[in-house]
């Protein structure tokens, strides 16, 4: 990552701070990695000290914060490394990636947290902030050392794609979280109800001859956890909800003033179970793609603000784990590089305003995790993106930076592209000036 020695002036921009309702014409100055000031003048006078970047009337917004991404390093670098994940993130406008603890070894000790932070500092071009395991080995039996893991740099606690099924363990975790002010994130899916299920339970699953996963696998776990939150007052985040019944549970929790937030996967916002089509394994996901009524319900809940954040649920898989019969294929799809473009479908369809969308992608994740960023204001980190919400393109998997290519958006027509990404005022992705693109080549292995 090349540092910009001179202060920067972004001119001819549409400034979008997500707390406002719409972008406004203006310019923005950056110095020493921070936003120095915002002007209502699109083309202010600048001294010779400044490097001027003409945004061409495009939108300038805070960088995205993705609260759920699986990165193979350490232990599965063949699927994804911190470098390749960060390159994909930068190209997609994500300036902070929250990594899941399901690595090898599992992120359940301070030493492993420290390793990821140091490794990311040396190789990644965006911010990588790890969530630590909620239980040792993510086995759901014994809590990890929350205090020591937080001191090492963990931003929250989760068992990733595994749910804590033992209610006593979850109660203890929430109690400790309440004492420490920590955040517990749960994948709300009862594995016993999922069993051998591979897609949403319903008529389509029956027609395809596939074992279904009932919505109750999600709602029973969510309902139980909400009752434990009420008992302990620990901060709780449901990583992804996907159906109408879960929305009803979330609404009641918020109406009762519980310390509860929730997210939704971009996949459940943009696809439904019919997209599985002829057993397309890139659409085998967890939670599974639901029917169209559920998809419309989560979109409405997002627009209302009931669902707090959108996540990529980035989960790279090798060809060997995806090119299998649908029932045998691994769950997961990549999503870092397409997160913003896919989310903009909701804006173009009129389901949500651009400001509300950016709150779910940037402002709310920063608030929930207690991270800087998510706002455009003087003194804030200059984690900034410039994007054209209307530029159309076709997704070419060979042009994605992720090491794995299991994207459900292959050959999809999307609208909206990032042209510039900055992290702490340093340009890490740039198509305005390709000759100045500071994304480094992938490091040589061995």
UniProtKB/TrEMBL annotation:
Stretches assigned to the Dihydroorotase catalytic domain: 57-244
Record field: transmembrane: none
Active site residues per record: 313
Chain positions recorded as Zn(2+) 1 binding sites: 313
Details of cofactor binding: Binds 2 Zn(2+) ions per subunit.
Any GO MF annotation of the entry: dihydroorotase activity
Keyword Zinc set for record: yes
Domain Amidohydrolase intervals: 349-429
Cofactor entry: Zn(2+)
Highest taxon of the lineage: Bacteria
Reaction catalysis annotation: (S)-dihydroorotate + H2O = N-carbamoyl-L-aspartate + H(+)
Keyword annotations: Hydrolase, Metal-binding, Pyrimidine biosynthesis, Zinc
CDD domains membership: DHOase_IIa
Enzyme Commission number(s) of this protein: 3.5.2.3
Coiled coil: none
Family, per entry: Belongs to the metallo-dependent hydrolases superfamily. DHOase family. Class I DHOase subfamily.
Job description of the protein: Catalyzes the reversible cyclization of carbamoyl aspartate to dihydroorotate.
HAMAP family linked: PyrC_classI_B (MF_00220_B)
NCBIfam families attached to this UniProt entry: PRK09059.1 (NF006558), pyrC_multi (TIGR00857)
Protein name, entry field: Dihydroorotase
Source organism per UniProt: Hohaiivirga grylli
Gene it is expressed from: pyrC
């Amino acid at each position: 990552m090349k540092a910009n020695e001179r202060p920067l002036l972004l001119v001819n921009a549409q400034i979008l701070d997500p707390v406002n309702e719409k972008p406004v014409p203006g310019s923005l100055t950056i110095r020493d990695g921070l936003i120095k000031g915002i002007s209502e003048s699109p083309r202010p006078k600048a001294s010779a000290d400044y490097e001027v970047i003409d945004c061409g009337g495009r939108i300038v917004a805070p960088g995205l914060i993705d609260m759920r991404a699986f990165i193979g390093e350490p232990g599965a670098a063949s699927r994804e490394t911190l470098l390749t994940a960060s390159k994909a993130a930068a190209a997609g406008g994500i300036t902070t990636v929250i990594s899941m603890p399901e690595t090898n070894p599992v992120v359940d000790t301070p030493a492993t947290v420290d390793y990821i932070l140091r490794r990311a500092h040396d190789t990644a071009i965006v911010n990588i902030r790890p969530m630590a395991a909620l239980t040792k080995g993510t086995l759901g039996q014994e809590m990890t050392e929350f205090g020591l893991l937080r001191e090492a740099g963990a931003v929250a606690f989760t068992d990733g794609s595994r749910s804590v099924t033992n209610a006593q363990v979850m109660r203890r975790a929430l109690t400790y979280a309440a004492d420490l002010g920590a955040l517990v994130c749960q994948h709300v899916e009862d594995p016993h109800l999922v069993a051998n299920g591979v897609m949403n339970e319903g008529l389509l699953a029956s027609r395809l001859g596939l074992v279904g996963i009932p919505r109750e696998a999600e709602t029973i776990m969510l309902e139980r956890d909400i009752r434990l939150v009420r008992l302990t007052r620990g901060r709780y985040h449901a990583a992804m909800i996907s159906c109408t019944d879960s929305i009803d549970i979330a609404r009641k929790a918020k109406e009762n003033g519980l310390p509860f937030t929730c997210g939704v996967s971009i996949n459940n916002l943009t696809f439904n179970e019919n997209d599985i089509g002829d057993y397309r394994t890139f659409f085998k996901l967890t939670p599974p793609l639901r029917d169209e009524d559920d998809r419309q319900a989560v979109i409405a809940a997002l627009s209302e603000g009931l669902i707090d954040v959108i996540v990529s649920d980035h989960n790279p898989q090798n060809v060997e784990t995806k090119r299998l019969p649908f029932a045998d294929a691994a769950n997961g799809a990549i999503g870092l590089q397409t997160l913003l473009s896919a989310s903009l479908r909701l804006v173009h369809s009129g389901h949500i305003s651009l400001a509300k969308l950016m709150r779910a992608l940037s402002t709310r994740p920063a608030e929930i995790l207690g991270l800087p960023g998510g706002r455009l204001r003087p003194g804030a980190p200059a984690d900034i993106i410039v994007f054209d919400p209307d530029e159309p393109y076709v997704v070419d998997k060979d042009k994605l930076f992720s090491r794995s290519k299991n994207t459900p958006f292959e050959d999809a027509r999307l609208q909206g592209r990032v042209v510039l990404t900055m992290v702490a005022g340093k340009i890490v992705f740039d198509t305005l000036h390709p000759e100045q693109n500071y994304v480094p080549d992938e490091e040589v292995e061995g």
